[in-house]
Amino acid sequence: AKESGRGGYRFFSPEMNQKLLERRALEADLRVALARGDFRLAYQPQVNLETGAVMGAEALLRWDRPGVGNMPPDRFISVAEETGLIGPIGTWALQEACREAMTWPDHLTIAVNVSPVQFRQAGLFEAVVSALESSGLAAGRLEVEITEGVLLNDTDETLATLRRLRSVGVKIAMDDFGTGYSSLGYLQKFPFDKVKIDRSFVRHLGDDRSAEAIVRAVVGMSHALGVHTIAEGVETAVQADMLRQRGCEEVQGYMYGKPMSGDDFVEMLTCSTGV
Ligand code: C2E
Ligand code: CA
Ligand code: CA
Ligand code: CA
Known about the structure:
Layout: H1 14-36, E1 39-48, E2 54-65, E3 69-71, H2 77-82, H3 86-101, E4 109-113, H4 116-120, H5 124-135, E5 142-146, H6 148-152, H7 155-167, E6 171-177, H8 184-189, E7 194-197, H9 199-202, H10 209-224, E8 228-231, H11 237-245, E9 250-251, H12 262-273
Parallel strand pairs: 2-4, 4-5, 5-6, 6-7, 7-8, 8-9
Antiparallel strand pairs: 1-2, 1-9, 2-3
Helix pairs in contact: 3-5
The structure holds ligand C2E and calcium ion (3 copies).
């Protein structure tokens, strides 16, 4: 009771200790997974809404954690960021995604997520170039997905890195657009090739007028600035129709394909083109 007034004591609460221990264990497991090559990438198709053609895929990190099972990236990326492990994990993802995309028809693109911490680390540009060089993938086939977290600090440096990436032909997509503090102003300030409309808006298409208005505004503003739009998390035909009516070019979501292994993605391509 008396001690509860003194902040320091709270550090030794059992819950706190438990959390710390869990974090340490997670960090240790991440290091082992990285060293052993336990991470995998899943590929989710990105589809042209007008023609139904597969345009490419987004690479999503997968980890079968020993003794735990499938760990969603949302549950370990923050620890990877805090411990700096996101650097080597992200570099691995870039290499692996480019290598995999080399086995696809060469009009298809590959989108790779780059976290804000990874983006700010020295050598991000070099890691991207090295992934392109060692795989032989044309730069124009690689798209880097960044979130607003990338744009919040170090504006000049961020802008310089984005420009460098674009100068070699790499595409930039603004992920999760419309969430957090991301604003339409970002579209003008930073050089994007694509805007990804966040699932939280897509989910409410058909039952929430304000979500519809936001989608309409984002697509309209993007087009005015010459930027393509892709909607994420499309699950129903109603959502797809509303996006099509509003001029959104591409879609990604369970309706078109869940994240899958590289082999399954290639098989899907073969089936859909009849090759
Ligand atoms: P994100 O970039 O917004 O990725 C989209 C997430 O939505 C993915 O979850 C995907 O599996 C899921 N999703 C796709 N379509 C649907 C749908 O129709 N319905 C629903 N309910 N969900 C859908 P996932 O794979 O668990 O990834 C979660 C987040 O983890 C990603 O969100 C991304 O921020 C992060 N992430 C994943 N891979 C990487 C990576 O290689 N590097 C970094 N830095 N972050 C990653
Ligand atoms: Ca993404
Ligand atoms: Ca996203
Ligand atoms: Ca999202």
